[in-house]
Each structure stands twice: as C-alpha cells, then as structure tokens.
Design brief:
Largest sheet: 4 strands, antiparallel
Helix content: under 10%
CATH superfamily: Carboxypeptidase-like, regulatory domain
CATH architecture: Sandwich
Order of helices and strands: HEEEEEEE
Radius of gyration: 18 Å
Structural class: mainly beta
Distance between the termini: 51 Å
Number of domains: 1
Number of helices: 1
Oligomer: single chain
Number of strands: 7
C-alpha cells in the first residue's frame, strides 16, 4: 500500500487539495505536402516534430504521421513551423479526452 501526503497538508493541515487531474491527449497533424519537418511547441515548450504529412482523411490518435502525446488539462498556445508555413492557435486539452489539431491556415 502506498500512502501519498501532499506538502500542502504538512504546512496547512485544514486546507483541502484537489486530486491530480487525469492527463488528456493531443495529436497534431497536417495534410500539406512539402515544407519538410514541422516543429511543434506548446506554450513555448518544444513538443516534438512531425516528419511527414497525413495523406488521407483524418488520422486516429497516435497514428503514423502525427505528433501525439499526453499533457495536463488546460488551454495552451500551440505553434508549429516548417520551411513553408507557420501555425499558431490556442488548444484546450480536457482530462481523459483526446484532442486532434490539424495544422492549417
């Protein structure tokens, strides 16, 4: 059995703390040929690179040609850039949900 004690409780024992929220998932993708690798940032933090484009329809979470990862719930500025295009949009990640963001103008 694992016992978890939050530091807030040690300092203020009558204060309540919310349990950590379940992470949400985000999947970035684009369908534009050319431009080379696409670097992606979330709130100014480098998130990774998309190395190819998605050719048909909309991908599933984690499918080849996407950049997919888990992140804490909230609203964030997402930015992406390759040799041809630059994208900037706000995204909202919800606890336990999957959010797909197509990079488009």
């Amino acid at each position: 059995m694992l016992t978890v004690v939050f530091l807030e409780y040690i300092y203020e024992s009558n204060k309540t703390t919310e349990a950590p929220k379940e992470l949400g998932t985000i999947s970035f993708w684009h369908n534009k040929k050319g431009g080379g690798d696409t670097d992606v940032w979330v709130d100014g933090i480098y998130a990774g690179v998309i190395t190819s484009y998605f050719k048909n329809g909309e991908p599933n979470y984690g499918q080849t040609s996407t950049l997919s990862f888990k992140y804490k719930p909230g609203t964030y500025k997402s930015e992406a850039q390759n040799n041809k295009d630059t994208w900037s949009r706000y995204i909202t990640i919800n606890s336990g949900k999957c959010f797909k963001r197509r990079l488009n103008k």
